[in-house]
Amino acid sequence: MLNTATLRAAGCDVDAGLARCVNNEALYIRLVNMALDDSNFSRLTDAVASGDLKAGFEAAHALKGVTANLSLTPLLTPITEITELLRHPEPDADCGALIEAITAARDKLLALRD
Amino acid sequence: MRNNHEELSGGRRIVLIVDDEEINRELLGAIIGAEFDVVFARDGGEALEIIRRRGASLSLVMLDLLMPGVHGAEVLRVMKEEDILAHLPVIVLTSETSSEVECLRLGASDFISKPYNMPEVILARVRRTIELYEDRSIIRGTERDPVTGLYNIEYFYRYAEQFELRHPDAVTDAAVVDINHFHLINERYGKAKGDAMLRRVGEKILAEVSPLKGMVCRRGSDTFLIYSPHGLDFGRIMENAASTVEGRDGGESAETVHLRMGVYACCDKDMDIERRFDRAKLAADTVRGSYRRRLAYYDESLHDREMYELSLIDDMPRALREGQFRVNYQPKYRISGDEPVLASAEALIRWEHPDMGMIPPGVFVPLFENNGMISSLDSYVWHEAAAQMMRWKRRYGFTVPVSVNVSRIDLYDPGLYGDLRAVLDESGADPSDLMLEVTESAYADDSDQIVRAVTALRDMGFKVEMDDFGSGYSSLSMLSILPVDILKMDMRFIQGGRGGERLLRLIIDIAGQLGIPAVAEGVETAQQVSLLKSLGCDIIQGYYFSKPVSADEFEGFIKERIKQC
Fold first, then answer.
1. Are B507 and B518 in contact (CB under 8 A)?
2. Are residues B138 and B108 in the same domain?
3. Residue B464: inside a domain, yes or no?
4. Which of A24, A38, A65 faces B95 most closely, judged by CB atoms?
5. What ipTM score was computed for the predicted complex, to two decimals?
6. Each residue of B525-552: pLDDT tens digit?
């Protein structure tokens, strides 16, 4: 069940996220669900896989804003890292591990729905 | 001051939120929606479309920077270019501290970082941005002169004072630029052309003054004030400003427009801002009427004159108390018979200053006209002259009607009638023996008000003389409605030769048509007397008969007159 208690248990800073939703819990949960379904996750994965680092940066940056606003901490940490990596990409930068971390964190939160 | 929980007055404002992420839009919408109506755009293109369509109905744009398609920075750039930012503020939404400076440089008013602050903080910043912009646009609407777009005088002085506070050690110059005979330009070419000329002169001056961060305003109808850090080339400003006017292919206006400028350089910082411009104006007035010299600086000699005038102004109340002002009388003679006979007198003021000796009225009267002190001086003369007239009447059984001056500001003073009533009550004089001289140019000011005042004075029984007739700008149509009993002309203002003679004939004819006498003053030669006599002017005043003399000396004329009977 995805709710404030399970999100909190999963490491999200629910109080901060809720405050930004003017403490409207229904709104918060709806937006978290939207965030988890955000198409930027697949855009990010595809872009990195195909080597389009600019598109990858834009997707990561967008996800960073959203997860930060909702205080989805487990997602925010690796997303912030990959955003910085893609901002000034170095030739030997390894995004694979971060993509995996992001996917794992997202799956963990998606699992709360069941 | 509004507190944080108080909404802006005047209804809910509309805020446009621009973000490609729906979650961010919803989140911000929930926060902002508590106090404002919200519209959304998903990218820069949509944002610009909404901004153009909704125009002034929007109060604020909250703009994400990094969006696919048209970026936030591009939206800002377009808004700046199309001058939309002047009335519609933008708050940028960003998670990049590095882009904050760039946003502010592009014209954003503020930024809100992601993740968002607490809703109260965001609301407060939104409220404050809107409030600042609205206040500023109200100020903009009132601080400018609508014709030229320059500051108006009040704001100009205030900004000059602010400049002084911030730069107390800056060396500054104050300058005044006047357009010569601007009212004639307005009359000849119409107000629209006059306004266009004012705009061009203003633009030219501003273009020269701006690089030094100086400021310009328009005062009155045709005067520009410049306040600037020292270093402007005023000669060039004059040339450029005048050339836009004179060189324009307006053709006919080319030779009629001239500027004059006065500069008070390196202003004394202990002096009020306004007084600094008085000094510049003083300098400008020294080139009034000169086509050769059009630019003058306030200097030592002007300083001396100013100090002299200030000391006269300081001394005036005491002089009035101590009776330093004397009333002298110049006789007027009727020349219609074989022998001239005393007809009346004009009361003239003189100042016998204990330290500075005799000060001519030409020096102090204009000063007191400027600062309003002339009213108490006029009143003093009225009381004194009426009392003197009655002393002569008691002593000789003969009434010498006396004319006294009524300055134009007296005619605006509601206390005028009460004071003149007191003159009559105290002296017992008959109002028809007192002739009130009003200068012709006074009628040009606000003819309705002057006509009303003069009518009221005549209703009280006084005779009204129009002084210096022929030197002002009375129109013929005004003459027909003027309530006036005597026309008075000054021979010193009427040149000799055939032209002068024609003008005299004309004035005397006008008096004849109106059925009132014409009086000539400033008459000095026998030739003038015989000319005036031949033209039918009956009453004459001037050195030909006598200079102004003391009341005691004047008794000689009265005795002579009595002998003639």
1. yes
2. yes
3. yes
4. A65
5. 0.89
6. 999 999 999 999 989 999 999 999 999 9
